[in-house]
Amino acid sequence: KQKESKNISNQIVELDRKLEEAEKNLEIVEGQLSDLEGKIAITQRELDRATEEAQAQKELLNKRVRIMHQNGSTSYLAVILNATSFSDFISRLDLMRKIINYDVNLLKERKTIRDNIDEKKQQLEYEQQQKEALKSNLSKKKNEVEVIKKEKEKLLDELKIDIKELDKQLDKLEEDSQKIQKLIIQSQSLGDYIGGEMAWPAPGYTEFSDYYGYRIHPITKTKKFHSGVDLKVPSGSSVVAANAGKVILAKYYGGYGNTVIIDHGGKISTLYAHNSKLLVKEGDTVTRGQVIAKSGSTGVSTGPHLHFEVRINGEPKDPLPYITKSKK
């Protein structure tokens, strides 16, 4: 039975690892798609500009044709031969040369602009094809994330049915909580409390799904201690530091999943668990209200939420008196 319990714990850890990897891959593809859409917008603007230039060139060329038509059959040679003097001849020759060069350059520019339009059209078509491929890949990555989420949900649903096994997992969670107490005592600073009221750790989300203290577990019907409060928070929402301090833990920690612990001085620390993504690392100094993680459902968790704890010298205390003043 102990081996089976360890196997389920390992399955939860492995599924969380796969989910984190799948979400990272999804984020990469979303970034690529965003970059490509930016490039497409630039290419479209360049194409519109080139089209406007081509229209202006066309109008200028039409004007030149009309002028030549109005002048009738008078040839360049006739204009030169009608010179009244040698200096007039030189002037007329130079003028003719300029007119011819202007017309030649006008035709060259028109060709350059038309080539540019063709190039931009091909580039736009290629980028649109890339976009469709990325959208298809994005859909695939989203599906991979959902498959892993459902796989974990299925495992946890099975765990609910197997009450004895669920009870063991909850006991393990309590063991992890006691280990955290020792870890905090070893890592906390000797300085005074940073001071000030604590910020609400999940801005915009104020509904609780569980409270601090002993209670009869709704599934196992056994008395269990809950070391913090659970806030109903959708996956991917911002989790913020309740106060300034130093990060003394930022990693996957047993049943707590992706966890952050911040030391605020004065032997006061806060804990944020079951996150989908950690945005800080151990040793970082954070400010009050700084986003430190994205909420999720890693570890022993039956759905997206934020598990929040306040600890004094490593021992969990009721967090409500510390955060309800800043509730928003």
TrEMBL record:
Residues 224-319 form the M23ase beta-sheet core domain. Residues 50-120 form the Peptidoglycan hydrolase PcsB coiled-coil domain. It comes from the Bacteria. Keywords: Coiled coil, Hydrolase, Signal. InterPro entries: Cell_wall_metabolism_enzyme, Dup_hybrid_motif, M23ase_b-sheet_dom, PcsB_CC. GO terms for molecular function: metalloendopeptidase activity. Residues 5-64, 110-186 form a coiled coil. Pfam families: CC_PcsB, Peptidase_M23. PANTHER family: L-ALA--D-GLU ENDOPEPTIDASE, PEPTIDASE-RELATED. This is Murein DD-endopeptidase MepM and murein hydrolase activator NlpD, contain LysM domain. It comes from Lutispora thermophila DSM 19022.
